[in-house]
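Q: Got one fold?
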Amino acid sequence: MLRSLVGSEMCIRDRYEAGQAEGMDAHTPLPSVAECAWQLGAGMLVMDFWLYWVHRLMHVNRFMYRHVHSWHHRIHAPYAFSAQFNHPVEGLILDTLSGILVLVLVRPHPVMAAALFSLANVKVVDDHCGMELWWDPLQRISSNNARFHDFHHMPKGARFNFSQPFFALWDRIGGTYHEPPPCVHKDHRATS
């Protein structure tokens, strides 16, 4: 998780420095609500596109899977912090490069970049929590949630549900979407 946060911080700092070169600094006002919404939405789509295709490649390419991505799949029953349990090369290729792509293609305001990268980190941790929490809004706004990603970590699900962190769109387009079975880790109150 620390590696991912450091990568996000580096991306935000780079975007901030680029913004200063464009005359933007810490006192530059936020764009309009519509522009902020566009920056978040476009950033989510760019990030999801990159993460889907690279994640899928890491499963298809035996070398990349064996030497890089298999670190993450050592976790068969995901839990929150397993979201960031990966090989350093994977952290660079997936997390850092997706952030750079968002900064280059979308060019968000530094505050919007920080919001997007923070939301992505929270969403990935939430998707790896291993529980379908009835009170969790992040699991209600998208079919790409803990149940969706738990299936990916099951042996029979390793060829499906590559999308992360926001939408299942690219799985549907890429033909790798699989409806996960009902979650076996529902949030039940402890009775002891």
In short: Helices lie at 2-21, 33-60, 62-67, 88-105, 110-127, 146-153, 169-174.
